[in-house]
Amino acid sequence: MHEFIVTYIREINTLYQTGLTTEHSFRPALQRLLTACTGFTVVNEQSHIDCGAPDLTLMNKQLPIAYIEAKDLEDGDLDGRKKNREQFDRYKASLDTIVFTDYLDFHLYEHGEWVQSVRLAEIQGNKIVLVGNASERCSNSQRLEAMTTDFISLMEHIRTARPQRITSASKLAQLMAGKARLLRDVIEQALIQDEQRADNSGERLRAFDRTELQGYMQAFQQVLIHDITPKQFADIYAQTIAYGMFAARLHDDTPDDFTRAEAANLIPKTNPFLRKIFQQIAGYDLDERIAWIVDDLVSAFAATDMQKVMQGFCKSTAQTDPMLHFYEDFLFRYDPQTKKQCGVYYTPQPVVDFIVRAVDHILRTDFGLPMGLADTQKVGTQPSSAAENSKSHPKTGAYPLRHRVQILDPATGTGTFLAQVVRQIKQNLGEQMGGWSHYVPEHLLPRLYGFELMMAPYTIAHLKLDMEINSGQRFQALQENDRSRSLLNSRLRVYLTNSLEEHNPDAGTLFGNYLAAEANAASEIKRDAPVMIVLGNPPYSVSSNNKGEWINHLLDDYKKNLNERNIQPLSDDYIKFIRLAQHYVERNGEGIVAYISNNSFIDGLIHRQMRSELMRVFDKIYILDLHGNTRKKETAPNGGKDENVFDIMQGVSINIFVKLPKK
């Protein structure tokens, strides 16, 4: 090793003495040194660096092992306490093994913690020499021997290090959050570069001139979120990849290896949208600017013991739901502001239980359905669209029979309410559970719907329902290496869509086609499904980003004849979701709306027309006011503190609106 280090120091000294160097000038010499000392492939890709990746990547068998971030000679901040703090903190939080260097000093960090430092040389006058004080009574060879031993130790540590085994959900959430955050930043920077390239060309890019990332973002703009920004798209796509990997690894029967290609094959068929995305990610033409961090995610999941992470996922109590805890932990670590802006708050399990049981009770008592949510009764309904109307019987004019009790959670989140609906149905079936394998495809999947706009909870909802419907069989199958034991051979009807917005299916990219198919399937439900039950925990956001013409037109019913200066609070997302639910039930002619929501509509002055409209449409209205508004400073009946069931300032209530048939 001595000769490699001596050669390296000579190289950088020769370059340094020219007086014309930058921090990039020494990179090839460092690349040769690392290759010689580790035996790994050392990648120096400028397109990676320009998008926020470390300068060098050490690769072993096509997987990243460690990263090197190089600064200029005598940078003076390799501990990241001053000018490099933001970048270094980001890398330490996202990358398992990284070395910060100024080409002379090397600082190794693992999992965000300092491991060791080695200094090879120093600047004396106008040249670079081996480390050591000239007055010390030791020869150059002795100093070289000591320094070489330390450097070899550092390199050997990197070369022989094994990925940290991940066995807990919280640790996995932390790791995923760091890598997804880095991936988000890289994607955003890549999109900005692409936009600058288009601007510099002086003409609008043709479809086939766009990069893959540009095409994906355009598809989102056309199909899902019309005003999406590069930052927002980067956020969604990063979560798509991170949670896709999670879903794939969850279904992996071969824990000793994991690759991008394997991930594409392992995405469950119940989620065809995610599956098709990963067919692109698994390909050789994945954008090289993000491929390195995708491969880093692969390495992390390869080191994850999913059996241990999964323990308890099929068991929920009143205190905790591990799947929800995992998601909330991830989102908080990933971006607390995103959690707040999107109104993502964990719904306490007792609240979910109560709402689902209340709906089940009302179905039994007010609608004459003794099996409640498990009811399989079918009725002939006339769909609202012309396309569905054409499906009537050509001779009799009768319409196809459909399940009467059709259930929608329009803000599904992680699937908490739908999973509880499945549990309630199992309870109602009781001794009939022996026919569960027949019941699921015939009487459950055709009438259980969910809409979700955020990619992360959308994926978890699929996983959770997969677990719940299979009654824990997925976890048992993981233990017994039997992936065939699944009751879900067709897709779950949980869709990535904006519940409050119509869509444009005309998307010009392959990714766009995937999105269009997802949006079209959701639109069939929006247009034609005789939804009877609408339940869940809709988001609260007074500064709503949902400003589509369709939902605002519906909302006019809550605003008419109000002579008020400020009715903007009526555009809060939660009010839009109440109006949406009213629309479905009113169209169906009967049904139940069961939400936990912001409670400002109960006594708000500007909400009086909303209350009047709800009283006009529904025959019974139940309000369970949970209070909790910190601004009102109320006191509980027992004199105690008024506490909120959520960690928010706004008070909430459980609201159940019932529209009876033929009334």
User: Which word captures the global form?
Assistant: elongated
Strand content: 5-15%
**Residue ranges: pLDDT <50 for 5 or more in a row?**
133-137, 472-485
Query: Which structural class fits the helix and strand makeup?
Result: alpha/beta
Structure, explained:
The chain contains 24 helices and 17 strands. The protein is of the alpha/beta class. The chain has a seven-stranded mixed beta sheet with strand order 13-12-11-14-15-17-16, with helices on both faces. A six-stranded mixed beta sheet has the order 1-2-3-4-5-6, sandwiched between helices. Strand 7 (121-124) and strand 8 form a beta hairpin. The longest helix is centred in the first third of the chain and has 33 residues, at 169-201.
Give me the secondary-structure topology.
Blueprint: H1 2-16, H2 27-38, E1 41-43, H3 46-50, E2 56-60, E3 63-70, H4 85-94, E4 97-101, E5 105-110, E6 113-119, E7 121-124, E8 127-130, H5 140-160, H6 169-201, H7 212-223, H8 230-250, H9 260-266, H10 272-281, H11 288-302, H12 306-310, H13 322-334, H14 336-341, H15 349-365, E9 378-380, H16 386-389, E10 401-403, E11 407-409, H17 416-429, H18 436-444, E12 448-452, H19 455-469, H20 473-480, E13 494-496, H21 510-528, E14 533-536, H22 549-555, H23 573-588, E15 591-598, H24 608-617, E16 620-627, E17 652-659
Parallel strand pairs: 3-4, 11-12, 11-14, 12-13, 14-15
Antiparallel strand pairs: 1-2, 2-3, 4-5, 5-6, 7-8, 9-10, 15-17, 16-17
